[in-house]
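Final report, Chapter 2: Outcomes

The project's central promise was a pipeline that accepts a single protein chain and returns its three-dimensional structure in a standardized token representation, suitable for archiving and comparison. That pipeline is now operational. To close this chapter, we reproduce one record exactly as it appears in the project archive, with the input sequence first and the structure output second.
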Amino acid sequence: MAGIEMAVDLSTLVDALVAGDSQRIVAASRTHVQHGEALDVLIGRIGLLAARGDADGHVVTTLAAAAMLTRLLHTIPQPLNGEVSLQERALPLFVQAMLVAAPAVRAANTNTSALPEPLYPSGLGEKGSVNEAMQKAVYNGDAVMTERLLLGLYGTGADYRTMAVRAYDSISMTFQDAGHPLMFAVRGFQLLDAVEWGDRADTVLHWLAPFLPLRANSNEPAWVQTLRSYSADPAHSLSSIRKRISLPKEEGALSLRSLLLSEADTAQVCQGVYDAIITGKSSPRAVGSVIALAAADVMLKVSDSDRATFLATAHGLLFAAAVRLVFRQVQDVEVLPLLYTSAAYINTLHKETAHQADAPQLASNPVGTSVVGGGLIAPAQLEALTAQLRGRDLTNALVTARRYLKLNYDARALFATIALVAAETDATADQGHTLQIVQAASEEFMAWPSTLTATNIDVLLQVALRAAAFGGRTPVVEQLAH
């Protein structure tokens, strides 16, 4: 599909993005959407352009979230009265993505930076390895060498997973900027998946490389050194998982949730991860899922009225979800220490939010009259949910969403509906975090291990609803959505 979509002429849309004219952006977006083009691919293509001007990193990450969320929209059932085409339904989400991309596309239009010379594995000598060279470059803060090594792998025609593993492994025992380097890497590669890697990976590698190395002012938290010491001990190696031939026992990961939400220290948290994988025989994916669930627990301690703290705390879920996704993309044991980092971060966030209320009251319709109910038919429930979220009536929105799931309707349509309301949030003002939270929560909810269905994962739904309900709106997108 991506290959076909590459024939689409985006010049009118790109001109509108460079001009920064919201009305032209809407008009050009409408043309592409109405033609039934694959929106995830189009967003991916715009993302490749934006990557050249995205010095902050959040633009590409937000576009990745939008691209993945558009893939859910086809699951939404037709309304009871009349019909809404997929194209009409998708327009607000696509337009919001384009508004986010516009400044970066404009910056890319004047960006003349060139790729450095690739350093191929053969250039490292007989005793050198890309793995060691990447780690040295990252720990020495050498962004140019980091990029040269990644481009060298790319130039050899290496499998894309090889480049991903090297990027992930090099930062698995580092932690700066609330985990953004790892999030950027995972979501950047996810955006690249939308357009297929082919001859386009160098653009994303060039964008990503500056974020990976440690900076002199990175201010890594104290617990990172404990993490490194624990992981460096051969007694704590996770490599024996290579020899496992039995099916994983995912229930062995569940005890980790309470550990992360306790006053345990970093060494105890790391030991909990080790025990879940080695002693409990859980898979890395299941451990990642449980860590993400604990991250959602932490988010629920933050008051609905404190949006800034809610978004800051959400970085725990965004990081944990990215780590869990790593183990869907690759299977290499070199990246397993990321689970130590993820768990330690969520435990730290739990301690930092200990002063927050354990169960903040849900907002009750502060901005108007909300629709209550929705009956038992899926379309009616989703329509009611949309009205409730727009009315910021989280209490009834949660009731409706729970009823919808209890009736065994498609969870993808539920999160797609939440995503459409989230698309009305001004993503340029919140750096796309609302869309990113909905993406992360939906991915974790739907990827929850099938053998752990007895575990209540309602908190993932709650954080998605809260993210969508309370963001500041974008008038131009609101008009399209109504």
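Archive annotation: Residues 363-369 have pLDDT under 50 and may be disordered.
This record, like all others produced under the grant, will remain available to the consortium after the project formally closes.
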